[in-house]
Write a structure and sequence with these properties.
The complex is a heterodimer of chains A (383) and B (348).
Chain A (H helix, E strand, L loop, with lengths): L1 H12 L10 E7 L6 H17 L2 E2 L2 E9 L4 H13 L5 E4 L3 H14 L3 E3 L15 E3 L4 H14 L4 E7 L2 H17 L2 E8 L7 H9 L4 E5 L7 H8 L5 E4 L6 H7 L7 E4 L13 H17 L7 H19 L8 H11 L5 E2 L4 E2 L15 E6 L2 E5 L1
Parallel strand pairs in A: 1-3, 1-4, 4-5, 5-6, 7-8, 7-9, 9-10, 10-11
Antiparallel strand pairs in A: 2-3, 11-14, 12-13, 14-15
Chain B lengths: L2 H32 L6 H16 L6 H22 L6 H22 L6 H12 L2 H10 L7 H23 L13 E4 L2 E4 H23 L1 H11 L1 H6 L4 H23 L10 H14 L5 H21 L4 H7 L1 H11 L5 H5 L1
Antiparallel strand pairs in B: 1-2
The chains are: A alpha/beta (383), B mainly alpha (348).
Chain lengths: 383, 348
């Protein structure tokens, strides 16, 4: 009920309630309640900024219908179906968790509607081998690769790894292996700890016995700081590296002095105002900040909301090409839109320059990540 | 691996083992008296840590809401029971114990939160606030089914844990906290750096084990608890009220959980759901002590701490697996060497 109210409000606020014909309808699903809502709400704010930024494709108006998936994959499935079957949306965007996004991919494949996912997932093609979904965020492997490459540039010969004993810890470790081999860096340890651990002394001692040049932190958020704290306690003075999982105010709060100087990869939008003027992301990121400020009354402090914004940019760009071929609201338009999305070429967004090909769901390259260093509690751009 | 590393690991293991000792002792205490394996024990420890952190930040802790809600529920349960039993004369007493006493610390924290409090007064307030949680849960959940089988009580305790961690998320939010260290003192013993914090944890474990021992050996209350533990029916025959001893056990247990929460809060980041795994490891220690022996539990808990510390050095991805696999040989040994008496059957 609440979500359909929200949809109505959005529709009215765009002044589109009456214009039934020849408008493009977008179905947006995010987690506004439940455990994933801390991220889901950011996606929502990013979408508000996107709508503030642009609401027309050529002469066609765009109507946005938004639903809450309550962080639950089965609700995400229901929402996707409802949006397609009842609201006849032309394209779907969603959602906050990997499980729910995968659930939406299944629906998109089945009902043949293009889907722009804003969570980093591995997208399955449909039974016929066609891809209906793309992924906006940087793939986790790439997030790690640029960090490993930076270690090499910084003159490191080897590094010790410590990460969560879960899927995220595996993603980071596996992502580090190939680039480390290519760069001639040696991974000295594969230490793991869990989010509820009270001590990582054993793991840290083991890492220190290997005398690493650097330490790669494969944790996230608050507990990502635990190894750094113990390392500092044992007198480790070497370099610290991490992933965007550490871009979190609680990580800085808990880590304090111990995490000072840690370098992590991040989408360029995170440090938009520090970017040089000729950086691709500078102009569009500042436009995003303005739109976000106008729509939400406060500046963005995260990278997630910018994924929603970028998904909107990709959709608008593709819709321009698709409206020339078919009429919105028809199955032909959905096919045309899907084909147009996979023709996206060097589209500048806040996080990346997007180029999508039918063979792959990810469309970003190494330009989508910059290195930032934590200095006095602030993330500083490291060219 | 050299001598220094093993010494550091041993120290780290003993420090986390000492926390498990405190929680393990509480688990055994409550189990012995009420036959309830009190799964939410770790949650209470985590709630104490979260309460302290809120007080440190000058915010009102979510625990106040939890305690008030529990007190109202318990009073309602007790009131209805008394009305049904036509024992209205006991109503004022019930109000005092189930409503007024728990609300006093809640009110105190409500007024004092936000003021600049010294560390000891924060700890005192936090402990006082957490203290009523276990007895109130006992009144609401376990008293009505006090004579049920151990299995049913365990199932209910597990359900209670999930309910509590859900409430924890509601009252404290999803982010983790870490409080300021209780002491910054650092000692150097034979080239080894020893944290004052570690010493404090170990000292607390020793002191409370000792106090429990004295309490059970030399006070009438303690003897009554032991009597109830050994035989409920027999204890009732000689004039001990199992309900009252149960409340006593829960109070003591709450205190132990609270103290371990205070000690653990500066060492690691505590989330609303951190308590479960800590409780589970303490439970492994308690099982090594066969859920009955206090010294056995203490030894078992330290063993778990040491095992955890050394496996985190050798084989960190499998640390949890190894710690919990310890249960298999222990249970085998227990059931082979003490296969004679099943308490449950002996009672009925």
């Amino acid at each position: 009920m609440k979500s359909s109210m929200a949809a109505a409000v959005v529709a009215v606020s765009l002044g589109l309630a009456g214009t039934a014909q020849a408008q493009i309808t977008v179905g947006f699903v995010t987690s506004q309640s439940g455990p994933a809502s801390s991220i889901g709400v950011l996606y929502d704010k990013g979408m508000k900024a996107a709508v503030e930024y642009a609401t027309t494709v050529g002469n066609e108006k765009v109507k946005l219908i938004q639903l809450d998936d309550t962080s639950d994959p089965s609700t995400a499935t229901r929402n996707a179906r409802k949006l397609i079957e009842e609201n006849k949306v032309d394209v779907l965007i969603g959602t906050a968790t990997a499980a729910s996004s995968n659930a939406m991919v299944a629906v998109a494949n089945e009902l043949k509607v293009p889907l722009l996912t804003i969570s980093p997932i591995t997208v399955a093609p449909s039974d016929t081998g066609e891809r209906w979904a793309i992924c906006i965020p940087q793939p986790p492997g790439l997030m790690v690769k640029v960090v490993v490459d930076r270690m090499k540039r910084d003159g490191m010969k080897n590094f010790a790894y410590i990460g969560f004993v879960d899927a995220w810890g595996d993603l980071v470790y596996n992502g580090a292996q190939k680039p480390a081999e290519a760069d001639g860096l040696k991974i000295l340890t594969n230490e793991r700890y869990s989010r509820t651990d009270t001590s990582v002394m054993g793991q840290v001692l083991k890492m220190l016995t290997t005398k690493p040049d650097a330490v790669l932190l494969g944790g996230a958020a608050t507990q990502g700081a635990l190894p750094a704290l113990t390392l500092a306690e044992r007198g480790y003075k070497g370099a610290l590296y991490g992933t965007p999982g550490l871009l979190n105010t609680d990580f800085i709060r808990v880590g304090g002095k111990a995490v000072e100087g840690v370098q992590v990869s991040a989408g360029p939008v995170i440090v938009a105002e520090q970017l040089p003027d000729d950086h691709f992301s500078k102009k569009i990121s500042m436009a995003f900040r303005d739109a976000y400020q106008k729509a939400n009354g406060a500046p963005p402090t995260d990278g997630f909301s910018a994924y929603s914004f970028d998904s909107w940019l990709i959709f608008i760009d593709a819709a321009k090409r698709a409206t020339a071929k078919a009429k919105p609201g028809t199955p032909e338009f959905r096919v045309a839109l899907k084909n147009a999305i996979f023709e996206t070429n060097e589209l500048v967004g806040t996080h990346a320059i997007y180029t999508f090909k039918p063979s792959d769901s990810y469309g970003v390259d190494e330009r989508s990540l910059v290195l930032v260093r934590l200095k006095d509690g602030q993330w500083k751009y490291q060219p | 691996m050299n001598g220094e590393i093993s010494a550091i690991l041993a120290m780290d293991g003993i420090a986390s083992g000492a926390i498990y000792v405190l929680i393990g002792l509480g688990l055994v205490l409550i189990f012995a008296v009420t036959r309830v394996i009190f799964v939410p024990f770790g949650d209470i420890a985590a709630f104490t840590a979260l309460t302290l952190a809120s007080l440190e930040n000058g915010a009102r802790p979510g625990t106040i809401g939890l305690v008030v809600a529990l007190a109202v529920l318990a009073t309602a349960a007790e009131g209805i029971a008394l009305v049904r039993a036509r024992a209205l004369a006991r109503l004022p007493r019930a109000l005092l114990f189930y409503l007024i006493l728990p609300l006093v610390p809640a009110a105190a924290v409500w007024w004092l939160a936000g003021a600049a409090l010294s560390m000891p007064s924060r700890i005192g307030l936090g402990l006082a606030l957490v203290l009523p949680i276990a007895p109130l849960l006992d009144r609401i959940v376990f008293r009505p089914i006090a004579d049920a089988s151990v299995l049913l009580l365990l199932t209910v305790a597990v359900a209670l844990h999930f309910a509590l961690s859900g409430l924890g998320l509601m009252f404290f939010g999803p982010e983790g906290v870490r409080t300021k260290p209780l002491t910054d003192v650092v000692f150097e013993v034979a080239g080894l750096v020893v944290n004052g914090q570690t010493l404090l944890v170990v000292a607390a474990a020793i002191v409370f084990s000792g106090l429990l021992f004295l309490f059970f050996e030399f006070t009438l209350q303690g003897k009554a608890l032991r009597a109830t533990a050994i035989n409920r029916t027999g204890a009732r025959l000689v004039g001990i009220r199992p309900a009252a001893t149960g409340t006593m056990a829960y109070l003591l247990g709450s205190l132990l959980a609270g103290i371990s929460g205070v000690l653990i809060a500066p060492v690691t980041t505590i989330f609303y759901d951190s308590g479960f795994l800590i409780g589970l490891k303490a439970f492994v220690g308690a099982i090594i002590g066969a859920m009955t022996s206090y010294p056995g539990t203490a030894l078992g808990a330290v063993l778990v701490g040491l095992l955890e510390s050394f496996t985190s050095f050798w084989l960190s991805p499998y640390k949890e697996v190894l710690v919990f696999s310890l249960l298999i040989p222990v249970l085998l040994w227990r059931s082979l060497s003490f296969a004679t008496v099943d308490e449950e059957e002996a009672e009925e």
